[in-house]
Amino acid sequence: MSAPLDKPQVVSHSQKSLNYSLFDSKWIPCSAKFVCLGSSCRGTGLMQIYELQHGGIKLVKETEKTKPIKCGTFGASSLQQRHLATGDFDGNLHVWNLEAPDVPVYSVKAHKEIVNAVDGVGGLGIGDGAPEIVTGSRDGTVKVWDPRQKDTPVANMEPVEGETKRDCWTVAFGHAFNDQDRCVCAGYDNGDIKLFDLRNMSVRWEKNIKNGVCSVEFDRKDIQMNKLVATSLEGKFHVFDMRTEHPTKGFASVSEKAHKSTVWQVRHLPQNRDIFMTAGGAGNLHLWKYEYPAKRSEMDGDGEERGVAGTLNLLQNVTLSTQPISSLDWSPDKQGLCVCSSFDQCVRVLIVTKLNRVRSGWGAAVDGRTAPASLGCEQSLQSETPHQTSDQ
Amino acid sequence: MSLDTISSSPLHTQPASLTTHSVPVEHLDYKYIEKCSDLKYLEKILGVLRSGKEGIYPHLTEFCEKHVEKLDPRSRALRKENFPATSASFSKDEWDQITNELQTWENEIKINDVELNKQLFFCNDVNIPPVRGSNCSIQKVTYSGDKAYSKTRHLPRSYQDWDKFDVEKECAKIDETLTTNESAAIIDDSLLKIQSKIDTTGLTEQEKVVLANREKDKGNEAFRAGDYEEAVTYYTRSVYIMPMTTAYNNRAQAEIKLQRWYDVLSDCERVLQLEPHNTKALLRRATAYKQLENLQMAHDDINAVLRSEPNNMSAQRLLEEISKKINAHIHHKPNKGKKLLIQEVEDDDDDDDDGDEKDDMPCAGGQSAGENRQAAVRGGMGNAQKKAHSGGARGPTANKYKVKAEGEPAAVANRKNLANGNSTAQPANGRPDSPGEERTESTCASGALPPPLARLKNEGNQLFKNGQFGDALEKYTQAITGFTEAAIDSPEDLCILYSNRAACYLKDGNSSDCIADCSRALELQPFSLKPLLRRAMAYESLERYRKAYVDYKTALQIDSSIQAAHDSVNRITRLLIEQDGAEWRQKLPEIPAVPVSLRQHHTAATSSTHLHKENDTQEAARRAEARFTSLKTEGNELVKKGQYQEAVGKYSECLKLKSDECAIFTNRALCFIKLKRFAEAKQDCNSALNLESSNKKAFYRRALANKGLKDYEACSSDLQEVLRLDTSVQEAQQELDEVTALLKQQRATGSPSQPRRDITITEVEDDDEEGDAVKSSSDGEQKSTSQTINLQPSNAYEFGQALNAARSLNDTAACAQLLRTVPPDSLPQYVSTQLDGHTLSFIMKTLDTHLLASEPGVVYQLLDHLHTTERFSMVLMMLNPDERMQMTQLFEHLCSVDCEDFSQNDIKNLANKYI
After folding, report:
1. A247 lies in a domain?
2. Total structural domains in chain A?
3. Which of B148, B222, B410, B698 has its CA 20 to 30 A from that of A201?
């Protein structure tokens, strides 16, 4: 029974029960610290910084805010500053300097209602172009902010007046591979996924996946759109190949029903865009690998190019809790290290092993993708990944 | 509730949907399950068994699971709930490894973290693009429309909605969506917009490491997804931020996939320079060599791999294949000889191309040396040439076609070996070597085509090879238009494009267009062999024999061993004699003289070719070559380590072996600059420029040397020269700004004329030092310097060389001699590229001291023409007051001379143009 150990294992590194409701947890880039965001029982917001220390986690800083904090991101901050952008229950967007978290370095009343999701791009060396933060709110609007511009968003995507406002549950940046191109993807409670092109200021693509969209994420923010994963309320998730858009059929996709309950989050491994983890409502985590098809696009009868979806491989699944996992974040610095928070008021640090050995290998024989001939020299963790010879 | 209890408590998820009544109890049986092949049903059975409603049968359940797995290993029914692994799930070693790894990371990252916090105050807002155009209200409107439409799209309309339905509006909306779809369809083009350079100014080392790794990871991912072009782009970005062996190695792999063998070679070289025993790089280089039919080199590389890793499977496999090929080649050697040659002739177009295809690498020795082709797939660039050649051309002759483009004897020798791909005894030293420090400047010094144009060109080449000349023509035309639209300053590339298009025209029989293209190519790169030959052929076919004759003759000056050209010349001579009688020669247009330096390379190549035939001499040459290459590599290594003094020694030895290698001069100049021995650096740059008059690096380094010598004017003019050659060199631009500032400062502070005198003094010293440098170097070099003063220049290039030599020796007598020989009306053309403040003042000095007394008429003539030189007014502005004074004196002297050639008024008019 040695086989199971060849696949990635999810190891519980440490966990801590907290006395408040946790909504989000994020690694501080280039550190062994992470922040936890949530709501205390008194209805105030809490922001805690924990640090890994000798196989455990230790609280290093705690700050209390007036409103419960729903979500946060470091994505729009430089590596030198590492400012955290947060969205709270009152619709405020704040940017905090974690060294001096008493006063926000940027603050704006972004929305009328709770900010459900926030994402950033342009910082941390991820994504070319200006640093921008996108917020999605229950008031139905999605707004893009530049921390250098006070009070007003640089882009605002809202439904026309009189239209029922849909609760926006999730937002994600993508396609930021040069100075101009950039996309925002938003998911709504009615199952709508909308892709806004910030360069042309237009809706580029939309799709309804029938159930509320809990989480969307591009496999990488800073490359030409490649894949988009959208998870839904009833346990399904969809992976769209965003490279080839067919004029009528749109993007090719593959879907998988993994969890028996809501898939709360999807997060791609920062070191390998084809591996991602989904976090389920039943307290379980599923680790997936997307396998590309032999050809990513083909010509259909009318001479139009059509994308071909790949297949999904379940690499591992674990159950952590009975309560939903509300957030998950991979460490950008250490492959396989992740932190997740769940509604049982517990934060966990997990290690996923052997991620660097995941190739098309596991189940490769099944999905028919020929494994490239390997040179046989085992590579170091730092990944000289492409190491095949070319003799075909 | 404690969390430990949660995570360890088993979770019961009842498969409520699976009702037992659909599965009869009889089916819960080993035999039935074994026979059953209905996966769905088996999964149902499994559900029932697991539920335990019919009793708990662990073995049967397991059996059923296995059977399901056999039918579909990825069946969802097989997914079980797992719990996070703990130390108990691993062996002690594994667990230790996991924990230790994390602990080391933790320690490292904490140090990094602290360092980052220290640097908190350096914000690099400079790099950040401006805030997005924040025209909120307008966006709102446009979005609202789109959004409202999309909202209703998926939901059924209510009856009220139908009442409001406006057909016109809906139609308009459909149109709108159509247009958006169109805009979305141009996805693939945007790939080209990934910039291969990243602005890293203001980033800390640490950030650069993070960035470089990230770009590399992106490259790896793109590679895995099969987007090799994209992967190469990301690796290039990574390397641009910070050169790492892994990124180079991976880029080599991606290039293997794209079959860009020369790029593979150069990338592997880089890795091997940093890590000489990197097996992967060796293997990849072997693969590239194999594809390029350079079997011996491939063989050597693989043996190197097998020495360190005897069990490397792929190396063994590769070795087998190569051994087979080598054997096959040996067998075919005798009768294949001639065929190979012909292919060789066609090769060189591709060679050029592959060099250009490189995205950002400078054309280093490594690459050029590898520039050979799989001789197998050949259609024929220049088939006409082939026909002409088949008469008398021999291998080595054909080879020399390439020499011009490279000017690197090492590469030449190497290529020679490559050409005889079957010659088994190859010198290991022929291995390409890209000078280490060249890489750091790679991005600025590249004159390569941008990817889309390179692609067009390659497509064109491919089509040409396949004989689809019309289509190839179109591709080249597109490439040329793209080229001019992009306003790229790279005459070499454009020259090649024109030359290739000319080949297409020639094939199509469109001789006049061929001539036009060749002429354009020659304008860009005077004395390129191929355009000359093609134009000659085109002229010949148009029966314009005189012009054809001239072109053939010019080509033969460059390379006297082109048999086809000789044949044609003989043929044309006969025709012309028939046509014009005995005085046919007088009716010929003037045959331009080819610069000696261009010829020299070819004679060198010829001589080495001759050597090649004789085994003993060949051996000696090889040894010299080996020593040369190793010295050069050592020199480059030392430069990388910062041991410039030692590097100078190595390079000097190199030059003793071979004094016509431009790169050695520029490299030694770099060392001298680092050692602050600016005069010597300048001398080296001059030598380099004598060998290669448009070497950007030499100009740039001479500028630095001049700057070090506080000769800001010369520095500025050199930098302008660099920028003229390649506008994209940012360093030069920066230096120029700096120097201009210094110059201004100097002028401003120097108004009381004292500091100005200082400058002149330095100037004199400078010249002295240069003289000293020449004297202190070996006698041979002294001789060669004096030899270079060719007092009978026949073209601008030779004139420039001679003038430079004279000036560097401060030899006004030689200069006077030189000026006497030059027809005054062609002086502007001759002097144009060389003219800077010092040259001008030197000429003035010469005129004043040597020529004025004896030949005032000539002085007047020369002065009368000199001011028409290009850039003259700019140069004039660069003069310092002393030089101006000198000029005024000259005119005063001229005024005082009585001569019938000019009047006092003429002098005054002329003086106005100068002063």
Report:
1. yes
2. 1
3. B222
Q: How far are the Cα atoms of A157, A227, A366, A386 from residue A242, in angstroms, in the given order?
A: 21, 5, 25, 23
Question: Letter for the amino acid at B61?
Answer: T
* pLDDT of the residue at B785: 41
Specify the long-range contacts of residues B46-51, CB closer than 8 Å, at least 24 apart: B46/B77, B47/B15, B47/B18, B47/B77, B48/B18, B48/B20, B48/B23, B50/B15, B51/B14, B51/B15, B51/B18, B51/B20
Q: Give the minimum alpha-carbon distance from A125 to chain B in angstroms, rounded to a whole number.
A: 6
**B151 and A366: CB-CB below 8 Å?**
no
pTM score: 0.51
| Cβ of residue A370 closer than 8 Å to a chain B Cβ | no
pLDDT in tens, B794-850: 777 777 778 888 877 777 788 888 788 777 777 777 777 777 777 888 888 888 888
- Residue A377 belongs to a domain: no
**What is the residue type of B835?**
L
Q: Does A6 touch chain B (CB under 8 A)?
A: no
Residues 20-59 of A with CB under 8 A from B: 30-33, 52-55
A126 touches chain B (CB under 8 A): yes
Note the pLDDT of residue B77.
Answer: 66
Give dist(CA B650, CA B667) in Å, integer: 11
**What are the residue ranges in chain A where pLDDT is below 70?**
1-5, 125, 127, 359-392
Instruction: Please check whether residue A3 lies inside any domain of the structure.
Output: no
CATH label of the domain that carries residue A277: 2.130.10.10
Query: In CATH, what number does B617-747 get?
Result: 1.25.40.10
Contact at CB, A244 and B187, closer than 8 angstroms: yes
- Give the residue numbers spanning the domain of A271: 9-357
In this complex, the residue of A148, A317, A386 whose CB is nearest that of residue B131 is A148
Are the beta carbons of A293 and A308 closer than 8 angstroms? yes
Chain B CB contacts of A282 under 8 Å are: 11, 13
Residue A196 located in a structural domain: yes
A103 touches chain B (CB under 8 A): no
pLDDT, tens digit, 9 for 90 and up, residues B734-789: 777 887 887 777 766 544 444 344 433 333 333 333 334 333 334 434 444 444 46
Please give the Cα distance from B615 to B604 (Å, whole number): 17
User: Distance between CA atoms of B660 and B304, rounded to whole angstroms?
Assistant: 32
What pLDDT does B362 receive? 37
Edge-to-edge strand ranges of the sheet holding A21-27: A21-27, A33-39, A45-53, A56-65
Of A55, A130, A385, the CB nearest to B131: A130
Q: Please name the CATH architecture into which domain B205-325 falls.
A: Alpha Horseshoe (1.25)
Question: Touching check for B620 and chain A: CB below 8 Å?
Answer: no
CATH of B489-580 given 1.25.40.10, 3.20.20.140, 3.40.50.2300, 3.40.630.30: 1.25.40.10
Residues 150-189 (A) with a CB less than 8 A from some CB of B: 152-161, 163-164, 166, 177-181
Q: Specify whether the CB–CB gap between A325 and A279 falls below 8 A.
A: yes
CA B702-B706-B709 angle, 5° bins: 140
B398 has a chain A CB within 8 A of its CB: no
